[in-house]
Amino acid sequence: MHCGADLSGYKVEVSPKIDVSPKIEVRTNAEKIGCDICGERKAIVTCKECGRTVCNFHFEGEVKMCTLCAISHFEGIVRECEKWTGKYPSNDAKERIKWYRKEKELHEKKYREFMESYRKFGSNWWLEFANNSRKSISLCNTAIENEKKIEKLKRKLPPELR
Fold this sequence. Notes:
This protein is mainly alpha-helical. The protein has 2 domains: 1-61, no CATH class; 69-161. 49% of the residues lie in helices and 7% in strands. A hairpin with a 4-residue loop joins strand 4 and strand 5.
């Protein structure tokens, strides 16, 4: 609300009375309304995805939704990547990221080999193999990036919601 982020299209509830002091405090128009994630009673925003009311800390501007919906959003992207690259059967994000990095290295090596074969033999099917490897590299990068985002978002949640 006060940082300049575009909140058009979101319902923002703020009381008409705002105390201005060295320590600025924003109050909601209903004292009992708080963030559905942490209970904070500051600048409440309604998530368009799930309807939760959340504080600014739990509103993710990049995707314009609450932290819980953002985690689900990024997990969905990772699941899409898994359809092509294969699923690593661990719940530990660090282990999954290591696995995706190894997969990426493997596909980078295959890509170089396929491109070398294409240059040597000129057959287009080597180029098609190389393009598939390049797609796998891109998907591994996407999965790694989104796994990191998920872990960062989970650290914002109270322990009982992680």
